[in-house]
Amino acid sequence: MKAMIPQEVIERKVLMIKGHKVMLDKDLAGLYGVSTKRLNEQVKRNIKRFPQDFMFQLTLEEKEEVVAICDHLENLKFSPQLPYAFTEHGIAMLSSVLNSERAVQVNIAIIRTFVKLRQILSTHKELAYKLGELERKIEKHDADIGTIFEAIRQLMAPPEPPKRKIGFRQE
């Protein structure tokens, strides 16, 4: 299966819509080797398995944005149908409504891709946190170093000549 669908191909089809990592019905149908119409028919026959957090339909604005961003979705531009987006859980549920060996194998590859993306995201969060901690330490050190340089400048400054006192002097 790995040779049939490389993980990079699946990764390129994962989109971020409404704060969720999703794949569109058209892309999933292509991976499963069925038509988009067939995939959506199976989903509609089993609609109870696909609550709103598993699958949702894109709005016209979201569809236009996705078409503008993704070159491989160019033919959706003139389609009157609004595509469906499936979250990771919806994709897992698809394996129960598409009963073919290919569907099972594709689902396994897709779920592995989502797990890998989640691990990458977790690593990036850790890295961002550590970077933030480092920045805070450096800012504190910068302030301390600035104070040290100011003290050094004051020590290096030539002493001001003594000022003459105003008034009369008694000799």
Describe the protein's architecture and organization.
Helices cover 59% and strands 8% of the residues. It has helices at 7-13, 25-32, 36-45, 60-69, 88-97, 101-156, and strands spanning 15-17, 20-24, 55-57, 84-86. The chain starts with 6 loop residues before the first helix and ends in a 15-residue tail after the last helix. A four-stranded antiparallel β-sheet has the order 1-2-4-3. α2 (25-32) crosses α3 (36-45) and α5 (88-97) packs antiparallel against α6 (101-156). It is built from six helices and four strands, in the order αββααβαβαα. The chain has a domain at 7-124: Mlu1-box Binding Protein, DNA-binding Domain. It has 171 residues and is of the alpha+beta class. The radius of gyration is 31 Å and the shape is rod-shaped. A hairpin with a 2-residue loop joins β1 and β2. The mean pLDDT is 82.
